Amino acid sequence: MVSGLHRPTQLVIDRQAIKANIQQELKTLPQATALWAVVKANGYGHGMVEVATTAKHAGATGFCVAILDEALGLRQAGFTEPILVLGITSPAYAKLAAAAHISLSVGSQDWLAAALPVLQAGQLTASLAIHFAVDSGMGRIGFRDAPALQQADTFLRQHAEFNLEGLFTHFATADEQDTTYFKQQVASFQQMRQALAVEPRYVHVSNSATSLWHAACNGNMIRFGVALYGLNPSGAALQPPYPLQPALSFESELVFVKQIQAGAAVSYGATYHAKQTEWVGTLPVGYADGWQRRLQGFHVLVAGQYCEIIGRICMDQLMIRLPKQLPVGTKATLVGENGGQTISLQDVAAYAQTIHYEIACNLTERVPRIYLPEKA
Ligand SMILES: *Cc1c(COP(=O)(O)O)cnc(C)c1O
Question: What's one Pfam family the UniProt record gives for this protein (predicted)?
Answer without folding.
Answer: Ala_racemase_N
